[in-house]
Write a structure and sequence with these properties.
Distance between the termini: 60 Å
Largest sheet: 2 strands, antiparallel
Order of helices and strands: HHHHHHEEHEHHEHEHHHEHHHHHH
Helix content: 55-70%
Number of strands: 6
Structural class: mainly alpha
């Protein structure tokens, strides 16, 4: 057997690349390195703005030229960094050398020693990760989640009056509407989306053990914490004043826990839609050219929702692991977070792939109103709840003396199938008021949905 040429290991970089490629703009090694360059450049600008160590503020053209190093970052820089790291054996040092090289043609070599000044690698890394994760969430993951929420919202409104038999514990239960059931997921996901949007992205820039020791040694008279805060907040991040060598990663744990929570709600949605497809409440729309089974030509499999389930589980496994491990660092620093953070994109990638499948899947199903109606009409016994509740109200109001209405209806309906005529005969013989009797005789399974329809109006 001949050997294969080099192959990717992750299906996210192979089979599913098209669905997750937008994340690579931020949560890849290249995306991280571009953000590292951005942090180094902005630190240079900050130091010169404060005229530190005899430097002068750069003019607008010089600042623009420096920032162009970031905005023009591409394959040439990716290759150059790889070559530099092959020598340095240190990724952040390679970034520092690249920035130093770029200063020469810009006529800024006189400030080259301010590159990476008083910074530990983690000063650069923590800010770079915060910038890339924030961008990936805000520009890629959240918009896809919002697209799923809006698709669900549309279905909730469309199906708001479509009564269906509920199945608590998998058994026939008090009817609801398909719209209300979908609205539940919209409400849940909206809350989590809001929490994700409000997540803090913290950053530190305080040296090797978080004490500004090198900064103070170089210039004791400068208010280094104030400059650090200005710098971090200038990047749009929240300044963390108290850290070890690393930013403590609590914001990451909070974020990944929230995304994992969203994953689990989406998993619940996927399994419910799969179940509705299984019992026929949703029918699948055949897709041109698609094959459901390699041997059974009639099949249309709910693969979108099954694929989503699996990817949501993988995503949560990774994000849960990140949440649990990133909050611990031995004493002032260990490197366990270095490898784990390189898998942030993998965690988000599986979630993004699942969202893509759910969105596609929702576009490939339609409600079967005929089956919903038939299922309701075959289960008149579910009105036992309504009847016993009305009797109890009548007893309380003094219009009935029936003892233990619940037991009465339990005897009539539990484990039995009874029809409209059976219930009508039973209700007609009850000792209750005429108005109550009329309401019960007019009640049908399809009409026993309470306020399911107007509850949809609670969606924002």
């Amino acid at each position: 057997m001949s050997p294969l040429p080099p192959q990717v290991l992750s299906p996210l970089d192979g089979r599913y690349r098209a669905a997750v490629t937008e994340l690579g703009e931020y949560l890849s090694e290249a995306g991280l390195n571009r953000a590292r360059v951005q942090v180094e450049v902005e630190w240079l600008i900050t130091l010169t703005d404060h005229k530190l160590f005899g430097s002068s503020p750069l003019d607008a053209e010089q600042k623009a030229a420096l920032r162009h190093i970031v905005t023009s970052f591409g394959q040439a820089e990716i290759d150059e960094l790889a070559a530099l790291e092959a020598t340095t054996r240190h990724d952040v040092k390679a970034v520092e050398y690249l920035v130093r090289r770029r200063l020469v043609p810009l006529g800024l070599e006189h400030i080259s020693e301010l590159t990476h000044f008083a910074a530990t690698s983690e000063d650069i890394n923590n800010l770079a990760y915060a910038l890339t994760v924030r961008a990936a969430v805000g520009d890629v993951w959240l918009p896809k989640l919002r697209a799923v929420i809006e698709a669900l919202r549309g279905r909730a409104v469309e199906y708001r009056a479509d009564a269906m038999l509920a199945r608590t514990h998998g058994q026939p239960a008090t009817p609801t509407t398909m719209g209300k059931e979908i609205a539940v997921f919209v409400y849940r996901l909206e809350r989590i989306a809001g929490q994700v949007e409000g997540n803090d992205y913290l950053g530190k820039f305080s040296g090797a053990t978080g004490t500004f020791a090198a900064h103070v040694a170089a210039e004791p008279s400068v208010d280094w914490p104030a400059i650090s805060r200005e710098f971090v907040e200038g990047l749009g991040l929240t300044w963390n004043p108290l850290t070890t060598q690393i930013e403590s990663h609590d914001w990451q744990a909070e974020l990944y826990t929230r995304v994992s929570h969203a994953n689990r709600v989406l998993h619940n949605l996927a399994t419910d839609v799969w179940s509705y497809i299984s019992i026929g409440y949703f029918r699948q729309i055949p897709q041109a050219g698609a094959t459901g089974s390699s041997t059974m030509p009639h099949k249309i499999n709910p693969i979108r929702f099954e694929n989503a389930e699996a990817n949501l589980e993988l995503s949560s496994a990774i994000l849960d692991s990140l949440s649990a491990t990133l909050v611990t660092s031995r004493l002032q620093r260990d490197l366990t977070d270095s490898t784990t953070q390189r898998n942030i994109g993998v965690g988000f990638g599986h979630s993004l792939l699942a969202l893509d499948n759910i969105l596609r899947g929702l576009g490939e199903i339609d409600i079967d109103r005929v089956l919903l109606a038939a299922d309701l009409d075959a289960n008149w016994e579910i009105l036992g709840e309504a009847i016993q509740t009305v009797i109890r109200a009548e007893v309380t109001a003094g219009r009935s003396t029936i003892a233990d209405p619940y037991a009465l209806l339990k005897e009539l309906t539990r484990g039995k199938r009874i029809g409209q005529a059976d219930l009508a005969a039973f209700v007609s013989g009850l000792e209750i008021g005429d108005a109550a009797r009329a309401r019960l005789l007019a009640l049908t399974p399809a009409g026993y949905v309470g306020l399911a329809d107007p509850l949809i109006d609670h969606l924002r």
